[in-house]
Design a protein that fits this description.
Protein name: Aquaporin
Organism: Phytophthora fragariae
Shape: elongated
Main location: membrane
Strand content: under 5%
GO molecular function, one term: water channel activity
Oligomer: single chain
Order of helices and strands: HHH
Structural class: mainly alpha
Subcellular location: Membrane
C-alpha cells in the first residue's frame, strides 16, 4: 500500500505580513468585445467594458423578472381571480 504524503506547506506569518490584497489587479485582462480580430465584423451593440457588460446583464435580468411579476399581478387582478389567485402571484415572485 502506498502511503499518502503530506502536501501542505508551512508558511510563516512573517512572510504574509507585507503582502497586500490586490483583488483583481493581477487578474489577466480579458479581450474586449469591440476589438476586431482578423477582419471579423464587430456588432454595433458590442460593449467594450466588462463592467458595463455586467451592469447591462444585471439590468436586463432584473427587467425580465419585473415584467413577469407585474404580468402575473395584472392577470390576477384584471381577471377577478378567474385566471389565477394569490398563489399564482406568490409562485411567480418567489
Amino acid at each position: 500500500m502506498a502511503s499518502k504524503q503530506d502536501t501542505t506547506v508551512a508558511v510563516s506569518y512573517d512572510e504574509l505580513v507585507d503582502k497586500v490584497e490586490t483583488g483583481y489587479v493581477d487578474a489577466p485582462q480579458t479581450p474586449k468585445a469591440g476589438t476586431a480580430s482578423q477582419g471579423k465584423a464587430v456588432s454595433r451593440y458590442a460593449v467594450n467594458s466588462v463592467h458595463r457588460r455586467e451592469c447591462l446583464a444585471e439590468f436586463l435580468g432584473t427587467f425580465v423578472m419585473i415584467v413577469f411579476g407585474m404580468g402575473v399581478n395584472n392577470q390576477v387582478v384584471n381577471s377577478g381571480d378567474k385566471n389565477g389567485t394569490w398563489l399564482s402571484i406568490n409562485m411567480c415572485w418567489g
